From TrEMBL:
PANTHER family: SULFOQUINOVOSYL TRANSFERASE SQD2. It holds the Pfam family Glyco_transf_4. Residues 15-168 form the Glycosyltransferase subfamily 4-like N-terminal domain. InterPro entries: Glyco_trans_4-like_N, Glycosyltransferase_grp1. This is Glycosyltransferase family 1 protein. GO terms for molecular function: glycosyltransferase activity. It comes from the Bacteria.
Length: 262
């Protein structure tokens, strides 16, 4: 099968959406499918996303999206994001009567509101509802998200859950070889692990009065500000990868995930 994936989030970005899509493409190709990816880094004129310059968004992408879509001739189209590329692909699919699916990876209205307080949540939901309800199927992460979006007027919802790499993330890594990545810290260790950005609501965690130690593992645009504000009150390790990342999960006592947008 020839599958076209259209996404405004792709490498070199590092986030959950990119990770999910990268692994999906990998598994689809292992299964013998041919996957074509349309992303901002593929020859589009781009600009930095306001408040998040590490993310580049495509400008005036419709003509190039149309060219790529026609050349590839996909059997299936999946539009992963609600950005300029997603809207361009959606418009072309509707124009040509071509079925497509979409993904709802995060609470986009809450994400936008966290960065731009003047944009009401109601506007955000009107925007994403219009985008997604035109698709044949809206892929959501959990049954609870399906119920939530149904209450917001979305339809054609289906659950596409996320897996865990059990070869990398294993309980038996805890204190491997008698070592502890948090050995110098008082216990218990409360760890927030992931991208460090305003919409992740990490300050709610850092403001808690907790025994032991608070640790933030990861990198992102909010890291410098949080390190300065919470110096001496929390530990910031920066980004970790591979087994080192898995050890930071396994050696912690409590995993804390305060995001209100995921």
């Amino acid at each position: 099968m020839k599958i076209l994936l259209v996404t405004d989030a792709w490498t070199p970005q590092m986030n959950g959406v990119v990770r999910t899509l990268s692994k999906t493409v990998e598994e689809c190709e292992k299964a013998g499918h041919r996957v074509e990816i349309i992303a901002p880094s593929d020859g589009f004129l781009t600009m930095p996303l306001p408040t998040y310059p590490d993310i580049k968004i495509a400008l005036f992408p419709r003509r190039e999206v149309e060219r790529r879509l026609v050349m590839f001739g996909p059997d299936a189209v999946h539009i992963a994001t609600e950005g300029p590329l997603g809207w361009a692909a959606r418009a072309l699919c509707l124009k040509w009567g071509m079925p497509f699916t979409t993904s709802y990876h995060t609470k986009f209205p809450e994400y936008v509101h966290a960065r731009f307080k003047f944009i009401p949540l109601s506007w955000g939901y009107k925007f994403v509802r219009s985008f997604h309800n035109a698709s044949g199927r809206i892929m959501v992460t959990t049954p609870s998200m399906r119920s939530f979006l149904k209450s917001k007027g979305f339809h054609n919802l289906a659950v596409w859950t996320r897996g865990v790499d059990l070869e990398q993330f294993r309980p038996d890594l805890r204190f491997k070889d008698g070592e502890d990545v948090y050995a110098a810290l008082p216990r218990p260790v409360f760890a927030n692990i992931g991208r460090v950005a305003v919409e992740k609501n990490i300050e709610a965690f850092l403001e808690l009065d907790l025994p032991g130690s608070k640790v933030v593992v990861g990198d992102g645009p909010a890291l410098a500000g949080l390190k300065k504000k919470y110096a001496g009150r929390a530990i910031f390790t920066g980004a970790k990868f591979g087994e080192e990342l898995a050890r930071h999960y396994a050696d912690a006592d409590v995993m804390v995930f305060p995001s209100l947008t995921d």
